[in-house]
Write a structure and sequence with these properties.
The chain has about 300 residues and is an alpha+beta fold. The chain is built from six helices and 14 strands.
């Protein structure tokens, strides 16, 4: 039901697509169900008044209706699909005069790590951003393939080990929205939830201040401990973040790359081939640090 109660532009467009597709399908489904019931009643064995025509085999009018209406519906759906696919491309930045907030999201076993590169803070299982402000997500996984989804804001997108995906969302109403992993990823999957808090500008500043007031720092040892599988992880904040952490996670090089030596987006690590992998945005083909991630690859 959350999908049908959107609180942002992308979610609203997707809800409209669902309703339009449902309406077009109903043009076929409802008459077929109604006619099936009517035929069963009209031509029942006890109805001797019904016309019995065992040698009847063809009607041009019926054929025209049976093929014509579905063809028109498919053509309409094709146009809608083409337009909406480009308009709602998750990689396409949202048009706005407001500077976007960038959030780097990392799927771990079994929690979400969020890094705010422009503010130098991080959090686990909670994000915050101002309403009417575009949010640019950079998404990867430090483990198996996962999926990032905030139903009321729209657009599920995958999080993949050694690769980066992007997502652009915006909230038009203040609130706390449910976020989740929508791709099975192991034992703790069912509790891999997070909160997306859309708030006022002051509320966002207060959230950042609360994060900066945390006594914890997301340095490499802390991240390596956080990376270990754990379930039902409570919300936590980090006042500082190790430089280039997201890029190092993306390239499975946590602790192995000098601070500040950031790899080029979309480039593989040295010596690593790109065989069999799609060249889509940030791609880094590297060996996984987790056995079950190797299976997923």
């Amino acid at each position: 039901m959350e999908v049908l109660s959107p609180k942002g532009d992308v979610g609203m467009h997707e809800k409209n697509l669902i309703l339009i597709a449902l309406g077009l399908m109903s043009v076929v489904v409802i008459p077929v169900i109604a006619l099936t019931l009517w035929f069963a009643w009209r031509y029942r064995a006890s109805n001797t008044k019904a016309t019995y025509a065992p040698k009847w085999s063809h009607s041009t009018k019926i054929e025209a209706v049976m093929w014509g209406i579905p063809c028109v519906i498919i053509a309409i759906l094709a146009v809608i699909t083409w337009r909406s696919t480009h308009a709602l491309d998750p990689y396409k930045p949202l048009v706005s005069e407001v500077k976007p907030v960038t959030i780097e999201a990392v799927a771990l076993d079994w929690k979400w790590l969020f890094i705010y590169p422009d503010y130098g803070v991080a959090s686990v299982n909670q994000i915050a951003f101002p309403v009417d402000t575009p949010v640019n997500f950079r998404i990867t996984s430090a483990s198996v393939m996962n999926a990032f989804f905030i139903p009321q804001l729209g657009s599920q997108i995958y999080a993949m080990n050694g690769m980066q995906t992007r997502l652009h969302l915006i909230a038009r109403e203040p609130g706390s929205y449910e976020g989740l992993s929508s791709n099975y990823s192991g034992a703790g999957f069912s509790d891999m939830h997070f909160k997306a808090i859309a708030t006022t500008s002051q509320g966002f500043r207060d959230w950042l201040a609360r994060a900066k007031a945390s006594a914890a720092a997301l340095d490499l040892p802390t991240y390596q401990a956080l990376e270990q599988p754990s379930e039902k992880v409570p919300v936590s904040y980090y006042a500082t973040v190790a430089p280039g952490l997201f890029e190092n996670i993306l390239h499975n090089d946590v602790g192995g790359r000098p601070a500040g030596d950031k790899p080029t987006e979309g480039a593989p690590m040295k010596g690593m081939p790109m065989e069999g992998m799609p060249a889509h945005d940030g791609v880094a083909v590297v060996a996984s640090r987790h056995d079950h991630a190797k299976v997923a690859e």
